[in-house]
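User: What would this chain look like folded?
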Amino acid sequence: MLKLLLLCAALAVPCMAQLPRVPDIEAQRAAMMELSFLIGKWSGEARLWRGPGEPLELVQTEEAQYKLGGLVLMIEGIGRNKSDGKVALQALATVSYDEEAGVGRLRACNDGRYLGTDLKLADDGRGITWGFTLGEIKTNSVLRINEKGEWTELAEITIGSQPPRKLMELRVNPQK
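Assistant: Here's the prediction, encoded as C-alpha cells.
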C-alpha cells in the first residue's frame, strides 16, 4: 500500500509542477488590429424595432477604441430618440481574441441584457458578424464598412419557424 501511495505521489508531482501556458500577447494584438477599421467616433442614425409597428428613429453615436495596449476593443453605442432626445438605447461591448481557440470573443451589455458570443471577421476584412441562440430565439448581426466608408449594421431576430425580421439597422459616419 505504501509503495502504491509513493508511486501515485511521484506521478502527481510533474503534473503539479507544470506552469500554465503563457499567452502570445503579440498574436492577440495582431488579431485585434484586424478590427482597426472601427476605431474612432461615429455619428448618424439608427432604427430600432421593439415590437410590431413603426420603428423607433434614433440619432446614433458609436465610439470604438483600443484598451490594454490593443488587446481589447471597447465599443460604446448610444441612441437618442429623434423626437425628444432621450436615451433609448445604450450598449457597451468588448472584443478580445482567444488565441487558443482562434476566435474573437464579443461581450456586450445593452439596456440591462448581457451577451457573450463568438465574433467572425468578414472575408474582405471590412466587417464582422455575430449572433446568439436562446431557446427558439436566434439573432444575427452584420456590421460592415461600406464603399462610402459608413459603418452599417443590421440585426435580425428569428423566433421559432417565423421568418427573420429586423431588430435594428444603423448607419453612422466617422466624425471629423
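The CA atoms of residues 4 and 47 lie 69 Å apart. If you want, I can go into more detail on any region.
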